[in-house]
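On to my pick:
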Amino acid sequence: MRSILYSLYFISIVFFLSSCLNQGNKECTKNPYEDDYRNIASISNRQEWHSANVHDPSCIKVGDTYYLYSTDAYYIPPNIIFKDDSTVHIGCIPIRSSKDLVHWKFEGWAFDSIPQDAFDFVKEANEGKSPESIWAPYVHQVGEEFRLYYSLSYFGKNGSCIGLATSDSPLGPWVDKGIVVKTLYEDEMNAIDPSVINDPKTGRSWMYYGSSFGGLYCVELNTETGLTINPEDKGHMVACRGDQANRVIEAPEIIYNKEQGMYYLFVSYDPFFSFYNIRVGRSKSPYGPFVDCFGADLKDTTNNYPILTHSYMFKGHPGWSGNAHCAVIEDDGNYFLMHQGRLAPDNLMFRLHVKVVRWLSNGWPVLSPERYNPFVKQSLAESKELDGDWEIIEIKDLPDQLKLKQGQVPQEEWSYTPEAYNLSRKIKFNKDGAIEDDKTVFISYNSNGGFLYLKNNKNEITECAVLRAWDWENEKETIVFTGILNNGNGIWGKKVPKSRK
């Protein structure tokens, strides 16, 4: 069932018409920005950052505007003055706004400084070591009130807490309401990385949080206050991994998909500087249990599947690592997943990636191989458009390149070779409908559905969603597919131009 897919055979391809991303007749001829932003890394250039310096995103849509919140983290290149504008006070939790999920306006910070109660608790819990920044905010709306949850900790320790601030505007001002959950050294869990859901079936509220210290937990909240119903309650476990000293699990993100009638729990694995990757489980209840695509409970301390993202490299680009800690939003029936990605080869610059989510017929989500561009119009792809060169990537686990420390990559080892990426390989569609990939087979088309089907040499069938997308490596529109192989790995495909830039 989980055997490695070595060669692909196509037995049928189906394309579909979707209007969800139709943005009119605008034409895009180049990328909205360069991935390498070292030349605009100082604080005075923050309005040019757009998706730069976004780590651990959380997003909400209010009216026609998206609001994005992230960890206090910035790339500071050598030999530059980051604080090059003395009029700017750098606070905590950067806020951005956007109309199109690509161009982001820097709006400022949620807090002038770390809220005092949370600061005092974490400092005392870590024997006088002061927290320096706020991590992993999560924004949530209840009625007319906006709730901003935030994490405070000291790296590698579980003397941590999750706080709450509220406002009547997504831009604030924010009023701190105190600590929601706190953990100490003797606790199994770690109070960081919150995600909240109001159960549409019952109206009850739940918060998911945690890390490799004991796994991920779910605790019930008071819907009226946003705090826990029982101040001492830390909840119950919903996900865990074995060898927690070396294998990371963190960053839960919970959503409910009414079409599927399921709750989806997205989690992040492994070092955030390198092999950070996203997995997902689902449940009929927000309480759990959450199971993976093989029916295994996410609490089983085994690796769970499917793998939705990982370290990868398409041709014409140095590659992306650290592709995890996600936010997922639903927008009028359309779903988008957002995560940071670290730019190879140094992995120190990190940008927000926004990916279109598609749902397979079995109810599992898959992500577009390419970042979202609103100017790409969705329409039926004709069979003749398949002719030409394609790249495919199997999104799979990779062996550790070095010894990890507390599950992370040591600071002096942030550079990676191509062997540290899932690399693409080339296939070719012929004009007669054949695929050149070790062997040649014939394919057929029909106009129903919206999926592409792969068949390997063991006659295992893989369903993939197909969509039009923006090719960020080659700066043009293209066609992509995305699916889940029978071994639980992801599979991505992209049509590429004959002559690369």
